Fold each of these.
Amino acid sequence: MSQAVASNRYDPFAPNPAWTKIKPADASFPGAAGLSTGLIGLGVACIAVVAAVALGMVKLSGSESGLKYALFSYHVGFAVALGMSLGSLGVVMILNAFAAGWSTTLRRQFENAAAMLPVVLALFLPVLAAALLAPGKMFKWMDAAAVAGEPLAEHKAPYLNINFWILRAAIFFAIWLFLSWRMVGLSRAQDESGDRRITSRLRAMSCWGLPLFALSLTFAGFDWFKGLDYKWFSTMFGVYYFAGNTLLALALIIVTLALLRRAGRLQGLVTEDHFHDLGKLLFSFTVFWAYVAFSQYFLIWYANIPEETAWYQHRMQGGWQVLGALMIVGHFIGPFLILLFRAVKRSPTLLALVAVWQFLMCSADLFYVIRPMAYPDSSGLEHVWLDVLGWLGPVLVLLGFFARRVASNPLVPLKDPRLHEAMAHKNYV
Amino acid sequence: MTTLHPDQHAAGRLAGLVPDPGAPRPWDPVTGDGTLVDDAYGRAPLVLGDRSFGSVTDTVCGYVEKGPGRWWMPTFLISAHVAALVPLMVGYLIITGVGVWGLNNRIDWAWDITNFVFWIGIGHAGTLISAILCLLKQKWRTSINRSAEAMTIFAVICAGLFPGIHVGRVWMAWMLFPIPNANGIWPNFRSPLLWDVFAVSTYFTVSALFWYMGMIPDFATLRDRAALRMLQQGGPVPWSARLRAYAFGLLALGWRFSQRHWQRYEKAYLMLAGVSTPLVLSVHSIVSFDFATSILPGWHTTIFPPYFVAGAIFGGFAMVLFLLIPSRELFPGMKDFITLRHLENMAKIILVTGMMVGFAYSMEFFIAWYGANRYELDVFKNRATGPYAWAYWTMISCNVISPQVFWVRACRQSPLVIFLVSLAVTVGMWFERFVIIVSSLAQAFLPAQWGMFYPTPVDILTFVGSCGTFLTLYLLFMRFLPMFAMSEIKNVMPQANPHAGHDHH
């Protein structure tokens, strides 16, 4: 520790010698901009095809309703895009609340992903439009005629009604947009001023923001994913949804950082030791996801109460059981065994490969939650290309805007007071 | 008032710039004892008092060698007498039958299982605190891990008492284990109650290993100091000194502080921490399965596993604070190791886990309505407004409302307030189990079967006895075993950093 800093400890603007060690190459990275336009264009094209099917401009062979199919496939893509961004917001707030030092150089990329929430709001608009213009196509309870006289729907009407549903969506997005705007904006402001008090403010805001985040995320999960089957309920669903989102965020950021390193950036800022710890986080959230998913399934299976088991029963026949088996083997056992190895966690390339795999598995998990609601069996999978486009569209749009943001911001917080801790981060054992 | 930061103070002393290491620490209105630093650049010191490695050893070993002080023996005698209630009450129970408890046909689990889950929850926290904080590289854990682990062992001992005696015919309790027998009767392998037997006994074994292994280097230090004292004293050596040196020598398992020993020790410690963490989660999840696999409204809900784990951390941290706050007043020099920052950190964890538990309470309530199962909803309505409403609202005020005071900085920095909240949380966590178990059983499906549970003196005194047992064991731990992991504390002191006091990177 230098004496100059020590004697100025209470000066909030005192410079940290670590700041000067950031190379100009890491202060900006304009190279990603071209990639961004391509990704967004591709994503919009995918969404356009899905929209064409939804509007009946492209007729699906055999299937009676292209609209329903298109809406459900798009919903999966929306869920993945939301998960990446919302999960990242959660990670940013958790890192700030913990006053974490090791992760200072990683935080900017999580912030960039959290800053994508306005894009997610735009991606939500088709879901909203579908709810307003074609009620009941996705959320059966929205179609008053279809559920008339249905006791469960009537009982839940005070919560499951279209006006309250829209109001809640507005509240969720208000909370998320506000939190991400402040978390990201203040961090960027610190890049300019180097004011250490911003770190304290971010910490305080994370502390009161996290309870709001937890509640809004839980109820968003209830509204948009569990609510697809209004009959089913599970107190664990919010935790399950949180675990999946955080995994998506970690996967996105691991791949981003690995690519940036490959492009020659972040040398000495994001090291093998950071990948090691990111790998541990990916590992622990893989285990956490499995723990939550297993507990939810197991308790419902064991008690065997019909109104709970119906949801799983539906997914254990008609071909969907293959997806269920994939969740056990591909989402848990495989990554679990691979991530046990130290060498995998410390290699950016290998870890990024595992992260891509987990990204696909998290998408499949959301698919498993969403898509079986559309059709009773996997004969509903006759147009897999549409499912792929519905998934790719929102994801590519989000990734495109994300790439633009990565390109237009410093790759690390430039004047974070804990920069030196991240630079010196080591895993000795 | 000095503006010299404690870190700077320590570094200065190391560099020979601060002349008087023995001077009393100045109390700073902003940083308290010097650790409540809110500046993002630096980290608060974890050990105060400008201590050298030697003085840490002297202080921690001193607690064992010199004894804790005059307060110890009276406290010990009282709690030992309270602990004696356990054999009395259990003996009476076994001779007479479980009818001496207030159980009835409807409420066939009450204080017995409440006490079991209460103690096992506290028991789960200790290892979780120690192992998870180790994996998360939280350096401040070094001051609390030993006591937390000790607390774990003692709480599991108290917990283990209740399932054994609640089965009615205690002499048949061995049938809990799958032991081949002439009648060809086996336990039901599909029952979580049986998994509990395996889970809890595995957990006890691993926790005891984790605790004991951590103490081996400290035992060796105590052994060497005891032997050295015998040599220095000269003349006839009293038998007690011989016994001390011999006992610590036995416990130290031949530890000689060699580089190789340390290397293996650290690897083993990390692996045990890695094994303990999922173990704790799975064991407490299995405890929650005892309830959640049933179809009883109020018991069957999918959030139970993580909710129970959060509750265990919550109750465990409260118990650690409940034990440590008086300790740091009673033992000289302990405030250098358990600083205000340590207490504040733990208060924050209480706040976080308290809100997790509150989240689970509200999810249960919301889904009880949303799930549209009228029995489920009625159980929850009854909890809040029925004959056990007083217990429910005690639980809510202790577990959800009382920790909210920690949003206020002054509250989470005041040992007295933290102590009171930890007391409230301990009470609240007992009531949480009582509410879950008794209120669900008291008003289940058939109103004709509804009834109340009234504890008998035997119920109450058995629980009081288990508290006495816990406290007695903890007092013995304070008296005879090293309360801090000395090597780990030294590891987080500025001297352990080769760059301390100068700027070579």
Note: Chain B has a mean pLDDT of 89.
Amino acid sequence: MIELIHNYWLYFLIGQYPDGPLGGLVLTLLLGAAALGLALPLGVVLGLARTSAHRAIRWPVTALVYVVRGTPLLMVIFWAYFFLPAVTGHQTSQFTTMLAALVVFNGAYLAEIVRAGIQGIPRGQSECARALGLSYWQTMRAVILPQALRNMLPSLVAQFVTTLKETSLGYIIGLSEVSFIAGQINAQVLTQPVQVYTTLALTYFVLCFGLSQIVRVLEKRGARSVVTR
Amino acid sequence: MIDFRNVSKFYGSFRALNDVTETIARGEVVVVCGPSGSGKSTLIRTINRLEPIDSGQILLNGEDIHRPGLDVDRFRSGIGFVFQQFNLFPHLSVLDNCTLAPMKVRRLSETEARERALALLDRVGLADKAHAFPAQLSGGQQQRVAIARALAMEPPLMLFDEPTSALDPEMVSEVLLVIRDLAHHGQTLVCVTHEMGFAREVADRIFFMDEGKILERATPEDFFERPQHPRTKQFLSDLRSPFARSV
Amino acid sequence: MSIDLSIVLSGEFGQWLLRGFLLSIELTLVTLVLAFPLATFVALLRLSPWKPLQGLGFAYVEGIRNIPLLAHLMFWYFGATQLLPEGTRTWLYEHDAESICAVVALTLYTAAFMAEDIRSGIRSIPTAQFEAARALGFGYLRSMRLVVLPQAVRITVPPLISQTLSLWKNTSIATVIGTAELMYQAQRVETATFRGAETFAVTTVAYLAVSGVITLLGVLYQRRYPVRAA
């Protein structure tokens, strides 16, 4: 086991870099952060659309969100893998494919979190902003969204944990994130599958459990803080 | 200034406003009172279109304010509204609460908005709390900030929807003093309240509402000494019971 | 290039997809049957008054939940099978090891999430109910069974239906260890026919159809049995 770690720890951490593309745990983290970072604005737009007073906006977005949430992520990845090259005109790298799939998928889930966040702000807040003469967009930007996003922070970090786990599916399209690397190591070593996969499991555990604890702290802080009157 | 003409409003089959016709002049201070469910909050909320009406007209300086083409945001910026639940923005400081609308809607520069806000906070006695956050203030203080925030838009008309009903008793007078000060400076005011002592002292006219209608409108003297409508008499005698709060 | 659904829907390829679809459903049902009792057990562990049992429940939930399903599948199929004695291992490989490992991984994973939903549901029942049962002389387990759990059921069913939806979608991940469920068969058909659009369209519709049914069940349940406050 010690020898296993000694030989492969760097490969596990950063893949074949610099002799190849970045991989391993670092890639997992980068992919997860990029995916959530891009999915959040998409989620806000879709969440706003879900709370819109206009049916023409609300219904199509609701349908889109339901379709994406009823489809396995793997399916979305395959759609991206087979059709992004056709749509964009050039070869898309595995990273870009995976990123696109994760952004669309998480955007739909974040839409629901954003929607709940917006609807959780007391009506008096938006009434008062409108009474002062602020328009719908000014009200959203200056009063509702800042409060909603702050309240949503625990859910957002929890979604980040989920996104990190979802990056593991990059394995299937050959993206060299940490699960794929583990598979490669196992294929080379052959005699220590339990050790390899337990290490993989432990890595995810430390990462995700650590973040979940941050979520707990955030939730507690949120419950104690500012109460809207 | 404000003209109600046969205004009616329904919530489903419940008639909240029943054919209300009345005029409020510029510079007038009107107090609206009555039992719960009488329609007084609904009435005041129709003035700045927080509630729509089902029939009739409301005219502000001759303009029909419930007509479809109206620029509602611009219209509302000319009316100050103070809520029962204060509704301060918790994520902004007291000062930012007061500068937000002037900057975004009236396009004031930050310096101008701050100057105006600080002057108003001083007027309501809270200049030293400018950089505090709403959660750090008492209810009475929050409501005074809410009044300053509404005044920051320099509205010709101020509306108050039960401004002291959510406050602990010892904080009621600090807020009423601010409103009285506004009245003495010639502000056109419509205030829905249960504080009858305040009404007697400050109002030019008192409206008594029940079941969606204005049953009595009179000067404070006439209202308290010579009430006409039987419901008003009933209301006043209930107020004089040993457990009543004001009067 | 024309779109021709008949190629993927009929004949050999249609058979493959159908078999995959049926296996996906089978995996879901078998996992549900196994995961639910396990989840209830873990939830009760976490709710029990004894610290060591609480710790055990906590370790299970956090240990399983924080590891992606893919890693679970790889561990059981590539790792754990190597620890088995020779005879058992051979037997396993002859009897659809892929599906068995998939069920094991899916059951443990789903049970961890369900346990949390069940725990929340039980905790939402006021302690006074439990105390009243104990005051009448019922032990811990009987108080749970007769008083708390029946009330908790109504609150817990919607989140559990939501977990079932997740489970249905998660069966697709079993393809990485070679389980011949719908996603695996879809890849097979695509490789054989080069008809990616048709294959994936049909597969997506199949997943959405069952997702729709599960969601509908949830909506109907909440309509028929709305949560009534005490």
Note: The domain at 26-180 of chain C is CATH 1.10.3720.10 (MetI-like fold).
Amino acid sequence: MRTALLTVAVGPVGAVGVAASGWALQASALPPPKPAARIGADTSTWFQNYRLVVDVFHTHHRTIKGACPRGWFPGPGGPKIRASLLSLRRGAVLLLSGRSVSLVGRRRNRLHQPPVAIGDADGREVTARLYLTRVTRTLLARFHMLAEAELGRTR
Amino acid sequence: MSVRSDTLPAPRGLTFAPAPRWLVGWWAIGRLVAIATALAVKPTVWTLDRWDGRWYRMVARGGYLLVPGRQSDPAFFPLYPILLRIVHGVGVGWGVAGPLISNLALLLGLGLFFALTRELFGERLARRSTIYLAIFPLSYVFSMTYPESVVLVLLTAAPLAALRRRWWLATLCGGAAALARPEGLFLVLPLADIAWRQRPTLSPRQRGAALAAILAPVAALMSYSLYLDTILHDPLAWSEAERAWGRQFGIGGAFRAFAHLPAALGHNPWLLRDVVCFFLYLALLYAARRVGAPVAWLAAGAAIVVLPIFTGAFDSIGRFGLLAPPLFWGLAGLTKDARSERLVRCLLLILLVGATASIAYVFP
């Protein structure tokens, strides 16, 4: 009984040792991704979402043009919140967070509210206001390449 | 012919005699043919450093970065980039580090493969299968910035250490193998088989170490997931990255691979190489069974060859097979007389030249 317990104890302890030393090896030997590369990758993903949002809405047999970018936005109470911003071509700019919807502004003759991208660089918040009404495939690819370019700068 | 893994030798270390001259000679011939052909295609070291080599170099230089929905580097396991980083740290250029590690590791890997095969089948089959591995057509990968050479070392060192009752060493090698390539996971099968056979003669502590060795590949894979969670906040980032290459494991994957094969071949005729390898490898597994390869090894070999098509594609199966020792035991079992052995050697060398020349057009 005692010998069986010893076997059962030593095996998992050894496996935990492998997992711990494997993690330590990777953490010590490989560099973490550079902040700029991470922001490039995040922005690429963000734009991927943005590019895919529908900018023509159909409701009650009417066609409404607008954009619905997702990301971190200044919330009604001040601090930034994860939300979707529904920006119509003429009229309201609505902030959708969870189940709550709030009116955050009105626009005239502006196609879309400029979306805001927020990244995190070594704990410092980096904000980019993007005055873009359209994200092209080329631009998306450029942001994607930013990550690789940052990694392979000295290649 | 029967296997000898149950008639265990007296406990001894993993030390083995210096590689025999014939082994060094065939290693040199294989590398000379592969490297000369690669340089003839394009006379620069970057020829051996392309395709996945670029990804491994990227990880070594800048760490991991996941770009969801895009091809990204967590698909490439960490041990080889760590080695690249270490070798680069002592002053070797990035372009040279990969081929240098791979070619030297292959010499060690062939030595260990020979020792393991000799332990299981005896000298003659061990010699033949080692030569075939050294000059196998897809073996040009062993000269590129790919982790296959390093995995070969670990994949043969772990069971060899286990056969010699060095279970903690087997644990280390098994864990390291799974940190280099996912094929390392299949070591669980032969290690469990060896542990089961040795069970009556092991002390309780040794049994515990054997259990640790069996669990080590899974534990190492978990450590990779933990690391990815630490830096990318996604423990399954490696699987997510694989998806961007069109690889997603599923029960229906094999059906998808066959159903889409005509279209895939139309898109990329080079895929025929991997399809041919797939069926050839199945035949070689059968041949390995006939020479008496242990069932656990056959199962591990079958997993290495067959499981990739459950991701929905045949791509790179030719390369994956390099890490399935039973294939080379099977090939050696088919060529028992000197004439057929010479014929196969010549054929393999010719095919090695052709396969290496394909570096310019298609990934291995």
Note: The two ends of chain A are 59 Å apart (CA to CA).
Amino acid sequence: MSENNTTQKEFGFLIDASRCIDCRACLVACSVENEVPNDISRIWIKETGVTGQFPDLSRYSAPYHCMHCDDPSCVSACTVGALQKSDSGIVTYDADRCIGCRYCMYACPFQVPNFEWDVRFPLIVKCDMCVSRLAAGEGEPACAATCPTDAIMYGEKSSMLAQAHQRIELNPDKYVDHVYGETENGGTATFYVSPVPFEELGFPTGGIVSSAYTNRLVTHGTPAVAGAVAIGLSGIYLTIKHHEEAMAGLGEEMHGETAVSAFPGEPTHNETAEA
Amino acid sequence: MFIKKIVGEIKSLSVGYFIVAVIAASGLAVGAYRLYAGLGDTTNLSKAFPWGIWISFDLSTVAFSGGAFTLAALVYVFHLHELHPAVRPTVLAGLIGYSSVLVILFMDLGRWDRFYHFLIYPNLNSALFEVSWCIALYSTILIYELSPVFLKNSRFSGVLPIIEKWTIPLVIAGVTLSTLHQSSLGTLFVIMSSRLHPLWYSMLLPVFFLILSLAAGLAMVTAGAVISYWVFKRTLPENVMAELVWFIPWVLGVYLVLKLGELEITDELHLMFSSGMYSVLFLAELIIGVLIPIILFSFKKVRHNRVGVLVGAGFVLVGTVLNRFNVSWFAMRPVNGEVYSPHWMEVAILVGVVATAVLAYSLVAHYFPLFDETVVVTPAQTRIRNPQTILSPKATGD
């Protein structure tokens, strides 16, 4: 991405499923910070449910919010450009632009964007890394600041990713050997480590190419297709027209009448057509 | 008095108009309630299924309305002037189809109060942005193409020669815009690789959408002509109908080869028989919408028979609707087992909009010279003998 050669620091999350105790303090903190009701929140919990045989029971959970993709599908989809990727890596949402078409909800491979279904003039509900809180000088988003077990950590993106790999390296028996979010949908700014496979936590398993990229391959072809179709149609129209006029000229000739354009040295078909 | 005249006219209309009008009004009343109440209580849309039957309806209707651009291309670009009598009824159907889509899209927008934002906040990467623009521009061109019907007997008939002069460039612009948005409706789903079942998901979706819309458009023109034979006692000459449906097997043949070829290349062909309900939907779509019409319209007897044309075209249309519903609804894989079925209000609003469309078409057909060049059905005359009556007025200057 062209983003890479800017000097702006990118930020992200490191979320450790082994540390999450499902206390849901992050949900409350998010709800209070961003003034959204708890039932259509920007953050929620994914969990495995209780697994294993008694007495060896286990249960894992992890908070889940916008992954802040490097090349976000929602940004590519948004009809009016209300969703944008900021220089610091945040996928931001402009509530004043949104028309509520909900294309982003279908485009997002992580099923992140939420919607205010019960409001007359609804908006999309989506994590923006507490951008206004950060702007006010607070160090980190509400969820990370609140988390009592440091399951949610916030910091510079490269450092978060390095720490994720370090945890797996130091405890290869504890963690699954995969940093979720590193390659998913072309890479994101949220990195998960987990003691159980991510499918068991209910995480979507997507491709490593962003669907935004696939989408652009097609939508960027539009001007070329438009030009080609318009020129092709004009060509077909004029070709058949000239052909018909030539045939008509030939017909007249055969009936012994003046057939101007059929003789050499006379005006060509082209000129008669323009006349 | 003018009002008295209108009241008199209304009284003279048959009872069918009033029944349709009542249905239309009821549906639109539900629509007004939806705008007031929001989407939660009036639809079954959810986080897992943010789009529902409205989008499926929009996709189907735009495909049907493809008749207008297919026919415009055949008549004006490919010079098949003998098809000209079908142009006006089809363009009107197209315009009314697109208007219905715009109304339903308006219903679908959470922030319907900001519908105009697509005009001022462009996102050139967005397929939906492209679709919105093309539909808006193309509807304008359809109004232009149709304007002679309304202007002909009015005091503004003086502008008709000017309108005619610019017909060809605008038709070409219209066909180009249609190519773009018919295909872009397929592009909408290219970004949904994680949700749409692989039997339907493809980077070629825009191509599939475009080709099927050509077939659906032709089917719509001919089915419309047969229905109009019974309802309005006006129809297309039999040879014109036969020529239109002649194209259908070719178009569908291209579709079939591309569709199966794409599945073969991506190594997904086996899913055709191993995906349970998805396989049933997929095969139903291909057999009803593609295979049966190809076989039927290969017979000259069918092409020259009014009932045969209607049946064959019916298969194409049903198959197209199934395809659009599959892509936008049935083949969207559920999230956490959650599925979608529409709320009654969603259906009621659709019925209301369709009834309004039927009413609008009938009234225009009743009062304006829509069928000028079509054939009046009389008991003795089912075939056109005199080619003079079906030849078009020249589209361009000589």
Note: The radius of gyration of chain A is 30 Å.
